[in-house]
Amino acid sequence: MDAPTRSSLASKQTPPQPFSVPFFGQADALFERHLLSDAVVEPVGAYERQRFEALGHSVRDVLAAQWIKTQATYDQADPKRIYYLSMEFLIGRSLTNNLTNLMLNPSFKHAAIEAQLDWVGMVEQEPDAGLGNGGLGRLAACFLDSMATMQLPAMGYGLRYEYGMFKQAIEQGWQREQPDNWLRRQDPWEILRRSEFVEVKLSCSFEMHQGNLQIVAGHPSTLIGVPYDRPIVGFGGRTINSLRLWSATAPDYFDFQEFSSGDFVGALVGSISAQTLTRVLYPDDSTQKGQALRFAQEYFLVACSLADLIRRFRRHSDDWQLLPEKVAIQLNDTHPSLSVPELMRILLDEANLPWDEAWDLTTRSLAYTNHTLLPEALEKWPLHYFRQMLPRQLEIIYEINSRFLSDVRSRHPGDEGIVERVSLIEEGEEDKVRMANLAIVGSHSTNGVAAIHSNLLKTTTVRDLAQIFPERFNNKTNGVTPRRWLLMCNPDLSQVISDAIGEDWMEDFSKIVDLAPHAGEPGFQHAFLQAKRNAKANFAGWLHSVSGQSVDPDSIFDCQIKRIHEYKRQMLNALRVIVLYNRIRAVPDLEITPRTFFFAGKAAPGYRIAKLIIKFLNNLAGTIDGDPLVRGRIKVVFLPEYCVSLAERLIPAADVSNQISTAGYEASGTSNMKFMMNGALTIATRDGATIEMAEQAGEDNFFLFGLTAQQVAESRGWYDPRWHYDNDVETRQAIDLIASDHFSQNERGAFGPIVDILLHGDHYMHLADLSAYLAADQALCALYADRNEWARKAILNVAHSGPFSSDRSIAQYASEIWRAKPCPVA
Ligand SMILES: *Cc1c(COP(=O)(O)O)cnc(C)c1O
Description:
CATH superfamily of the largest domain: Glycogen Phosphorylase B
CATH architecture of the largest domain: 3-Layer(aba) Sandwich
Helix content: 40-55%
CATH topology of the largest domain: Rossmann fold
Radius of gyration: 27 Å
Shape: globular
CATH class of the largest domain: Alpha Beta
Bound molecules: pyridoxal-5'-phosphate
């Protein structure tokens, strides 16, 4: 059976279509051969999925030689290599991305259409590789694209989850999670490298107990990590790097006879438990759930990846001192920060180095990226997990801590406060290891992901550590790849851009600034608006075909698509919509530009309020749809199953990007950048990278509003949402309307918890920012009426989005953190 969302698509498009032979150059023969020999079907009778697989394999054939050549070049030149360790890679689809980066996309598409093949139908056969929750995982994927494009000798390491991010269905307005069995059918991109397996030793075993994984202490076990490689095609197809994803299996399921693995002794673990380890991605975003399986997953990633990269290093050198000159390991958040004790263990126990040498090599090889200041998201693992699973690593952590704290004491005699705050161990009812402290102490670089976030990190969250190691702290503002997020997803706008300034922007996105002089040209404005109109019509057509819903491409497309979280304030957006709704109800012939408000996003399955917000947004959409007074003027659409592919569809069609987090809470944001590149205007609080985006484009080309991070922090003590309720009529009417069950007429009281949060406490200060939001919104609508002025500002936004390419981020990582250079493939 197909995944529910896809089967409906497939069944509509499945009827086999005529196939004529002159297909695409070299690849047409490949394509046909794959259909004949892999699927064993007559090409003319092939199903869409078989065609997708044949096409995928053909593209892989095209890139295979260059992939091997890239790896051989690295083996020969032995450059300093970059290893990007991440628990998440939110890849999305690979077929069109690989074709785009091989610069074959237009010709393949054209040839397919010539051959009367349903190109879109074929492309949509590919499931999203959803091995991530949101921004952090997508960042990792964009970084891989940039590293390959910039010809850096890099490799991504992650886990091959059998089930990725859950699929979101909406039933009666509620989110229902469904498993994402993305590997049910053979994935054409992954290559099993069985011979490069790794053994991972644990001092416990696992057992399934009523569906839960439990630790069996005192029973050492061995797991096998089996690598699957995926090609990462750099733009132009010269460099093809690898993303190596580890799959866990048990020794008794693994055929060692096939390889000469040396001596293998390991207690046989229950195979079910071992294979459970990489079965599923944890669907929590911005919260840390202390679960043993997650802890084991993190260690498994670290142990497999370090063993693999050390083995590669040793093939070239037997001098351990060279490690930091040959290896840069970037830790994407604290999830892989067990790398600190694990690398120490390897250097101490396997290389037999003395402590000081091992410590020097470890800290010089590792670097850490912090992604959040939210206390609930900072990882802290109970000591007993370490004691049961990783006692040797715990011993090492104790030793690191004792040396570090005695150093701190000598610098701050008599100050036990600072010692307590910087300690790697948090003492309490249950002692825990502070993973952020471990990563900062055990590495040479700690970076935040936007200027404001890096500053807050230094001055608040880990202030003491920043004072002890000032030289370690730095900023690397996030970026997104302009290949996937502009060239691939928005062909019309890309063409308009290339017609004006040539094609260099694809590889050197700083060139996009050449658009700025065109912003005032009526002819260019017209072409720009036409591309936007096409993208909106395309989106409306797609939405209608998959859901039957109609949206008006001449309305303002106003978007907020991201994980559902209180700090991201989807409810602030909803309050704005309710105020507009009330205004129309009060003055029925009010003149307004028709607007469509799009929401999309998933809530963590255990996050009650976030799931209620989804229910609310769906009810809001239903109520407004059912109200003849507002029909055709405002419309709310909740798009289910937010994922990379949905973002690629909607962002090109967006007029307005909402980035409205409580200032100080969004570390960077990256959807803000995707919207900017695609010519949306941004309505936003001064938070994350949005601050830098507005700086680049000029604040008069942005719609900024609301409290600053400093104002938020300063008003924490006395802020009272009641004041806004009592003193602002529109705020009061909006909240009263929710409380009156206007949006829950058959579900009385359903939204009581939301009203409660807004009126009592309102930790994320929705009410404090509502009237400023509405004022900015009004200015934005007024501008929309002046099509040329709107286009001018939107074009200036695109023109100044250059610094938000992940190529810029990676250039800074490479020169300032990794000190690594490109290694071009001849
Ligand atoms: C870019 C992206 C994100 C990050 O969005 P933010 O608004 O920055 O939180 C999350 N999910 C997907 C699928 C994305 O493409």
